[in-house]
Amino acid sequence: MEYTGRADGEQAVTVGPVDSHHLDIIRLAWSRELGLPDDALSTRPDADDRAVRVDDDTDTIRFLRLGETSALVGPRWAIERADGHTSEELSESATLLALTQDRSGRCAGPVVLAFGTDYQEPATGQPPLVAHEHDHVRQVEEACPPDDVTEAHLGDRDRWFTILDDAEQPVSSAGYAEFQGFLADVGVLTAPAFRRRGLGAAVAGIATDDALDSGLIAQCRSPRDNLASRALAARAGYRELGTYAAVTISRSTL
Q1: With left for phi above 0 and alpha for psi between -120 and 50, is residue 50 left, alpha or beta?
Q2: Distance between CA 61 and CA 81 in Å, rounded?
Q3: Nearest to 224 by CA among 89, 95, 108, 62
Q4: DSSP states of 224-238 as a string?
Q5: Model pTM above 0.90
Q6: Cβ-count burial of 53 within 10 angstroms (0-12 exposed, 13-18 middle, 19+ buried)?
Q7: At what angle do helices 199-213 and 227-235 cross, to 10 degrees?
Q8: What is the signed CA dihedral for 187, 190, 196, 200, rounded to 10 degrees?
Q9: Taking the CB of the first residue and of the last residue of the chain, which one, N or C, has fewer CB atoms within 10 A?
Q10: Pairwise CA distance, residues 169 & 212, whole Å
Q11: What pLDDT tens digit does each residue of the chain (254 aa) get?
Q12: How many Å apart are CA 74 and CA 53, to the nearest integer?
């Protein structure tokens, strides 16, 4: 879930831990996403005994830190350069870019991974009017800055939920797509004129409950330095569990 609408100085909210059963499912999904054995993220004794996969055909170096486990996937030269760096160090974009400084690396992330496993508390008062058409999502996108739209990338989702105001105009949207068959990758976007009213958390909760009804664990991805995004995720019941970053290198340097 990529949340938008930073509020300088706003702090993320701390919530309880993810239980072991849900954690095993999350680890399995990410193991498959990274092309690792299903148990690769479940058997690491500590964060610096990381799982690795050498892929000399890829132009992307991917690093995941999930709870007390971590994984690195990329060309052999990148794996070798990362040896000796701690997982905490590899969670920093500067460290990943330093590995690729002679190969024109571009870093996406790090993003914080947080997960929703519980249904939302029933809302008091009259429930909002919710629509499911992609056209309503596009209208919310048209009201937002391009960077916010790119961060949420709601157009890539499979299911959409949009809160309509009293005039039945779309004001806040959420959507999700299945991730490795176990998780629901959720994105949220609120029109600037309607932010700071709790609409983002409300529509995130609606999408989360739908994902749970489908047997999925909800997942959000927030830029690590966007504290407002992380706080919004926490208000929607998400628990932070790890970080993910990817560096893409110029194919001419492979």
Answers
A1: beta
A2: 12
A3: 108
A4: TT-HHHHHHHHHTT-
A5: no
A6: middle
A7: 50
A8: -40
A9: C
A10: 27
A11: 443 433 333 344 444 577 889 999 999 999 999 999 999 998 665 545 799 999 999 999 999 999 889 999 999 999 999 998 999 999 999 999 998 888 778 888 799 999 999 998 877 788 999 999 999 999 999 999 999 999 999 998 999 999 999 999 999 999 999 999 999 999 999 999 999 999 999 999 999 999 999 999 999 999 998 888 899 899 999 999 999 999 998 765 55
A12: 7
Residue 58, Cβ neighbours under 10 Å: how many? 18
Q: Using alpha carbons only, what angle is made at residue 188 by residues 184 and 190, rounded to the nearest 5 degrees?
A: 165
Distances (CA, A) of 215 to 66, 119, 192, 208: 21, 12, 32, 11
